[in-house]
Design brief:
It contains three helices and eight strands. It is α+β, with helices and mostly antiparallel strands and 107 residues long.
Length: 107
């Protein structure tokens, strides 16, 4: 008790030339995620930010240490807690189109 158990993050300043698949692979190499939302424009180009939920709150630090203030394709990535916390809250806000499934991430 008393430990921060938030699991949802906003990742900012992602390179807009990355694909949804690139971002998903990058995050899944670091820890297990169970939700990922990556907004795109009408040409399917990412807008430079994403919302992610990790399966275990203990993985937040792992993801933070791996990516925050690090250069990804010459852009300094920033990570902060999302105002919306948990898979259900993210689904309610952004939809299910990027929820994980038994087969992996579904786009």
């Amino acid at each position: 008790k008393g430990k921060d158990q938030r699991t949802s993050l906003m990742i900012k300043n992602l390179p807009t030339n990355m694909t949804k698949e690139n971002i998903s692979s990058l995050l899944n190499e670091i820890c297990k995620i169970d939700y990922l939302y990556i907004p795109t424009n009408n040409k399917d180009r990412i807008l430079g930010f994403a919302f992610v939920n990790v399966e275990n709150y203990k993985d937040i630090l792992k993801l933070y240490d791996a990516l925050n203030s690090k250069n990804v394709n010459n852009k300094k990535v920033e990570i902060c807690y999302s105002k919306k916390q948990g898979v259900n809250s993210l689904v309610k806000s952004f939809g299910k189109e990027l929820c994980s499934s038994e087969q992996g991430m579904v786009y």
